[in-house]
């Protein structure tokens, strides 16, 4: 099984060209996310991929720092920003969970379709909390362990993931239940204020960092 950076570097071009599979759910969660943003906000997006979401949200905030472990993804994102003339998004190649090259304090941190790809999500959420201002929002969307109500394709995929990883066709995946995910979030000092499945098994969570 290859490491995550190599996997996503190799997948970047195909990933950037792939259409969103459930546009209605994507647009709904994008709208919910916008409802928590202010024009004065400084936002950090972790695991930004090829940058599409950061660029779509850029007109709702003062500045977005968008990071990803894949330099290839970041290269594509920078080209998109240049083509669209968007100047308030800074794209950074960084493994922020294993380095200190991203610091400062942010009003909002986004981790969209990321936490299930991290070995050690509890520590990652703690790190995110360290980068948030008190009262700031942590907004995440995480593919969780498919339950009985999840689409058949997810339930069929679950037993195939280890074999796909062996052949380098899938990255590391940690399928948590929504309950475990939310326990990690509250355990890191957050109050959960909104949840939803958009669609199941993708768990959307908005949490607020508690005031000290």
Which SSEs are present, and which pair or pack?
Elements: H1 4-17, H2 23-34, E1 42-46, H3 52-57, E2 63-68, H4 71-84, E3 89-93, E4 106-112, H5 121-130, E5 132-143, H6 152-157, H7 161-166, H8 178-187, E6 190-197, E7 202-209
Helix pairs in contact: 1-4, 5-8
Briefly characterize the structure.
The protein is of the alpha/beta class and 212 residues long.
Low-confidence sequence ranges: none
Computed Rg: 16 Å
Beta content: 15-25%
CATH architecture: 3-Layer(aba) Sandwich
CATH superfamily: Vaccinia Virus protein VP39
Number of helices: 8
Compute the separation of the termini in Å. 42 Å
Write down the overall mean pLDDT. 92
Query: What form results from the Cα inertia axes?
Result: globular
Strand order across the biggest sheet? 3-2-1-4-5-7-6
CATH topology name, in short, is Rossmann fold
Q: What is the CATH class?
A: Alpha Beta
Structural class: alpha/beta
The major beta sheet can be summarized as: 7 strands, mixed
Helix content: 25-40%
Q: Into how many domains do the coordinates divide?
A: 1
Number of strands: 7
State the order of secondary-structure elements, H for helix, E for strand: HHEHEHEEHEHHHEE
């Amino acid at each position: 099984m290859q490491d995550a950076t190599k996997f996503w570097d190799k997948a970047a071009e195909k990933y950037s060209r792939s259409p969103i599979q459930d546009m209605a759910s994507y647009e709904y969660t994008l709208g919910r996310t916008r409802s928590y943003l202010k024009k004065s906000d400084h936002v950090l997006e972790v695991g930004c991929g090829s940058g599409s979401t950061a660029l779509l949200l850029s007109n709702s905030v003062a500045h977005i720092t968008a990071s990803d472990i894949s330099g290839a993804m970041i290269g594509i994102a920078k080209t998109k920003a240049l083509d669209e003339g968007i100047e308030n998004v800074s794209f950074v190649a960084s493994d922020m969970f294993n380095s200190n090259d991203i610091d400062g304090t942010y009003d909002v941190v986004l981790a969209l379709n990321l936490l299930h790809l991290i070995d050690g999500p509890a520590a990652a959420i703690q790190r995110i909390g360290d980068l948030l201002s008190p009262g700031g929002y942590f907004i995440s969307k995480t593919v969780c362990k498919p339950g009985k109500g999840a689409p058949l394709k997810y339930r069929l995929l679950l037993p195939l993931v280890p074999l796909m990883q062996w052949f380098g066709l899938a990255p590391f995946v940690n399928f948590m239940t929504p309950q475990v995910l939310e326990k990690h979030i509250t355990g890191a000092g957050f109050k959960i204020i909104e949840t939803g499945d958009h669609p199941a098994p993708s768990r959307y969570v908005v949490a607020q960092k508690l005031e000290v």
